[in-house]
Amino acid sequence: DFLAVAEEDHQTELTRLAESAVERGVNEITSGEQNRDNDFNVEKKLKNENKIKNDARKKKKAQRQNRKKSRK
Predict the structure, then answer these.
(1) What gap in Å lies between CA 32 and CA 36, rounded to an integer?
(2) Burial, 8: exposed, middle or buried (Cβ in 10 Å; 0-12, 13-18, 19+)?
(3) What CA–CA distance (Å, rounded) separates 22 from 19?
(4) How many angstroms separate the Cα of 40 from the Cα of each of 7, 44, 61?
(5) The overall pTM is greater than 0.70
(6) CA distance 21 to 52
């Protein structure tokens, strides 16, 4: 009988603590931090800049390929 009463006290204490923690945390609306999504935005390059880079890369590759072909 003593064991049952001790277990019941323990259970009610845990239950009481859990309920108070949930009520304190979930049911309150707090201001919180402001939205900081802008801190993580990546600047996008213009399509024109990418095209210029790609064209230059292709031109260099073509020059390398031509040099290889001329050696043979």
Answers:
(1) 11
(2) exposed
(3) 5
(4) 51, 12, 35
(5) no
(6) 59
pLDDT in tens, 7-60: 666 667 778 787 777 666 655 666 666 777 777 766 666 778 888 999 999 999
Task: For residue 29, give both structure tokens.
Answer: 């609306």
The owner of tokens 């006290």 is 9
Confidence of residue 4 (pLDDT cuts 50, 70, 90): low
Numbers of helices and strands, H then E, in the chain: 2, 0
Q: Tell whether the model's pLDDT for residue 66 goes beyond 80.
A: yes
